[in-house]
Amino acid sequence: MIEAIRNALRVPDLRKKILFTLLILIIYRFGAHIPVPGVKISDIQQLFQGSGGALNFIDLFTGGALSNFSVFALGIMPYITASIIMQLLTVVIPTLERWQKEGETGQKKITQTTRYLTLGLAIVESLGYTVLFQQTLQTVQFSVLERYLIVITLTAGTALIMWLGELITQRGIGNGMSLIIFISIISGMPGGIRQTVQVANPILVAVTLLMAVIVIVGIVVMEKGQRRIPIQYAKRVVGRKMYGGTSTYIPLKINSAGVIPIIFATSVLLFPATLSSLFTGPTSKAIANSLTDPTSVVRFLVLGGAIVFFTYFYTAIVFNPIEIADNVKKYGGFIPGVRPGKPTAIYLNKVLNRITLPGAIFLAMIALFPEVIGGIFNIPFWQNFGGTSMLIVVGVALETMSQLESQLLQRHYEGFLK
Question: Which of 262, 300, 397, 404 lies at 20 to 30 Å from 385 by C-alpha?
Answer without folding.
Answer: 404
